[in-house]
Amino acid sequence: MNLVINLYSLFPRARQPTPQSLGGSLVLETYGFRPDDDLLEKLLVLSLELAAKEQRSEPVIGL
């Protein structure tokens, strides 16, 4: 998770995603996120998972 720590230095706390900036509770519920989750880390993990699927030529299908 050193990558996550490095990303924190790029994004000041005021610019990190919040539940409100992600569209509120409906978006959080759709992705299985909780309001107290570290949203930047969750979004990074999701992006890395999708990128790995694309690398393996697996289909990436929305929820």
Give your account of this protein's structure.
- The protein is mainly alpha-helical.
- The chain starts with a helix and ends in an 8-residue tail after the last helix.
- The mean pLDDT is 75.
- The longest helix has 17 residues, at 39-55.
- The chain is built from three helices and no strands.
- Helices cover 52% and strands 0% of the residues.
- It has helices at 2-10, 25-31, 39-55.
- It has one domain.
- It is globular, with a radius of gyration of 13 Å.
> What's the overall geometry?
globular
How large is the count of helical segments?
Answer: 3
- How would you sum up the major sheet? none
Helix content: 40-55%
Structurally, how many domains make up the residues? Answer: 1
Strand content: under 5%
H-E string:
HHH
Poorly predicted regions: none
Mean of residue pLDDT values: 75
* Tally of DSSP β-strands: 0
Based on secondary structure, the structural category is mainly alpha
**Rg computed from alpha carbons, rounded to a whole number of angstroms:** 13 Å
Distance between the termini: 26 Å
